[in-house]
């Protein structure tokens, strides 16, 4: 059984850390945990951590002088004052057990992150069931290029930051991705909250859509009287969740009733150009480099945040037009037999359908869209099976890989064969050699390939003879 979030709150954690000189991170190789470890090191703590496997993220931390152990052993926590853990670990983790035996304070990742951000004047949390990492990266690009020197903690790497995090020299802006899983975002302390969309997901935790709406409403309320909620007014679930909320709400969308709108929209090879209009006045016209209709909404949310931060229309235009995408978000990987190959993190039917429809608009004449898909967790696959089948059928050919178990066991009887049988052009595959061989023999110059999923499907790229 996984551990729960601690919910101590910033004031109690501040007391707990009063005499703290060192912090140990269990699960330090995660993209968010590695960022927190880096920030803690910058704040003057001695930092160590553990994870099961070596990765580029852990090697970068080691290069910064952080001691990392590649096994979970009780001895690892000896000499540390505080333990920070990810809820992905189980309650019988030996480091966690040793820390509790020794009276070493144990704090969940979200709770610790909520504490860290309280020293910043402006705390900007990007939430939503889809698009958090992309929108966070968009906002980061605009804030960095406007010389505001933000601290950023994202769920995806961004080339402009050289990773998934950035530590600014000033204490003005703290931009972060606010994950809803297990209500982690309720431990954060934003005074600007973005709500991109609300939909059913994380069925292993959330009991219903109403449960999710209540959680998002609680997150939005955390901005307090002087704060602001930036909300997608085109999303009926968002409107319902925030109805009657007693705080300032800035609505964005394509409808006329929104405070920020996109007008005069033009499509250019899968990407979009449009005017951003705020409160009836033109802010700027932008031509995005990234594809997909959903990025219009990400751009409007970013523009709303930037206006709240005092950026000009020129700053917003420069940031949005410079943004080339975050890692694993329609990331170009090279060519296979002349076909363009992309990597994407989409793992929910809405994300998948939106991304694949965007790619269909980019296809060369006579070209086909191949999708290699790895579903993430058995519970999500079983609960959203029909949605996955419908979304993936947008592609011309779909290779369904083994389901990524993550924290789960397959008690649902769900298989790649079952999902593939429901998809037009679907085929089940096992391992990554099999789908790699199919792609290598079938794709041609006019085709486009997208490798999609939140698990380890990216490993297929090591089996493809990609050319730049």
Describe this structure in words.
The chain is of the alpha/beta class and about 475 residues long. It has helices at about 10-15, 30-40, 55-65, 95-100, 110-115, 130-145, 210-220, 235-240, 295-310, 315-320, 350-360, 380-385, 385-390, 415-420, 435-440; strands at about 20-25, 45-50, 65-70, 80-85, 105-110, 120-125, 150-160, 165, 175, 190-195, 230, 250-255, 260-270, 270-280, 280-290, 330-335, 340-345, 370-375, 395-400, 425-430, 450. The strands form 3 sheets. The protein has a 10-stranded mixed sheet, sandwiched between helices. A 6-stranded mixed sheet has the order 16-17-21-18-19-20, sandwiched between helices. A 5-stranded parallel sheet has the order 3-2-1-4-5, sandwiched between helices. β4, α4 (about 95-100) and β5 (about 105-110) form a beta-alpha-beta unit.
Offer a quick outline of the entry.
The chain is 31% helix and 25% strand. By secondary structure, it is α/β, with parallel strands linked by helices.
Radius of gyration: 22 Å
Q: Strand sequence of the main sheet, in spatial order?
A: 8-7-9-6-10-11-12-13-14-15
Binned, the helix content reads 25-40%
The shape, in one word, is globular
Number of helices: 15
Can you tell me the residue ranges where pLDDT is under 50 for at least 5 consecutive residues?
Answer: none
Strand count, sense and barrel status of the largest sheet are: 10 strands, mixed
* Distance separating the two termini: 44 Å
The structural class is alpha/beta
